[in-house]
């Protein structure tokens, strides 16, 4: 799978709310109403990731925040697969 350039990534992220390109990955931090909502979001994202066979790094912190970081580790950066996962995550809202 082809790595996307920084310009391609930023163009694609322009349609996704609050996703950022940093350290060869795309990232977003979600603020939920409480711990259980953050945990539920993590599980919902996990289900989507499993269906796509593409798994993000997720960090649940500060009792109500979930940071999601996506990259294609085998390629060493961001690919279309990462953008697709971010789009699917956005559909949860």
SS-based class: alpha+beta
How much of the sequence lies in strands comes to 15-25%
Element-level helix/strand string: HEEHEEH
Reading off the top of the CATH hierarchy, the class is best stated as Alpha Beta
What is the number of domains?
1
Radius of gyration: 13 Å
Counting copies of identical and different chains, the oligomeric state is single chain
Any idea what the CATH architecture is? 2-Layer Sandwich
> Regions with pLDDT < 50 over 5+ consecutive residues?
none
Task: Describe the main β-sheet briefly.
Answer: 4 strands, antiparallel
Strand order of the largest sheet: 1-2-4-3
Instruction: Count the beta strands.
Output: 4
Q: Could you state the CATH homologous superfamily? A: Transcriptional coactivator/pterin dehydratase
Mean pLDDT, all residues: 96
Q: Between the first and last Cα atoms, what is the distance in angstroms?
A: 28 Å
What is the overall silhouette?
A: globular
Bin the helical content.
25-40%
Helix count? 3
Overview of the molecule:
The chain has a single domain (6-90), classed as Gyrase A, domain 2 (2-Layer Sandwich). The radius of gyration is 13 Å and the shape is globular. It is 40% helix and 23% strand. It has three helices and four strands, in the order αββαββα. The longest helix is centred in the middle third of the chain and has 18 residues, at 35-52. A hairpin with a 2-residue loop joins strand 1 and strand 2. A four-stranded antiparallel sheet has the order 1-2-4-3. By secondary structure, it is an alpha+beta fold. It comes from Stygiobacter electus. This is 4a-hydroxytetrahydrobiopterin dehydratase. InterPro entries: PCD_sf (IPR036428), Pterin_deHydtase (IPR001533). Keywords: Lyase. GO terms for molecular function: 4-alpha-hydroxytetrahydrobiopterin dehydratase activity.
